[in-house]
Task: structure prediction
Amino acid sequence: MTNARLLTAILLVCWQGPAVAQPAGTGAAARMIPFAAVETREAREAARRAAEAALVENIVLHRCTPGREWCAQLLRDGESWRLALIARGGTAGAERRIEFEPPDREVGEPFFALWPHLLRDADGAVTIGLLAARRAGFSGGGAMATRLILVRVEPGASAAAAVLTVPVQGSAMVRACFSEEDMRQRRQACHDEYEFTGTLTLAPGAADRHPRLLFETRARTYPGDVTRWEDSAERPRLQRRDLVWANHAGCSYRRSFGFDPAAGRYVADSALPDCGQFLVGEMALEEEAPAAE
Result:
């Protein structure tokens, strides 16, 4: 599979978003709301141009809640990106515009899209998600990864702030055959492959003013248990039983995040492991998703 096609597959999964089950009994408490793509000629044209630049499909740059109380639009000026948030309500026709500059928006050729969910807290705070994708190519392979950046707007605020960043997709292919002997040694499995997925959802029974979020991941490697930190040429000859996907226990984990008003961000119940081998190098995120002290 080519790097462009692999990136397309990753972004389609991430940008369409996972199905989110609503917690039972939340009532008027915190909830996740569908954040639907805006179907206008201008929105479609902007998405088409972005998709052509990114060599992928189905980029969504403009979303709104069903009643259009909140809308978000990603704007690109050359290599620079910014997020425009529009809040409507209160006085008839009143409109509030908030702009936010995504972190690292000019580093490593990121491609941004909007997460298809909006989180509304019981106190009226709103959280919107940005999906930031990067890719890196190298001889005989490549890597790509997508992270989810949550951006929060407090009630009545005129500014937005990033409050959580987690990896939601990662993939890498590393060439392992450089001769016919290598091909025999590896039974024609001439690439080491790495896959990572992460899903962020509202915790069941999240009735607090600041609800908890659940983050679950799965990571696996092929053929068998391989790692990017070791030379595959030094491994024993592959057996038929090795030609399977192997679960990576260290990077298949579950964490709970709670919002810390004093810190102004979500904090994990324990530190996230280092899963850099499944992600593009600069997107190691253990410092961006801190654990509670």
In short: The CA atoms of residues 55 and 108 lie 15 Å apart. The longest strand covers residues 161-175. The chain has one domain: 3-17+30-283. Residues 3-17+30-283 form one domain.
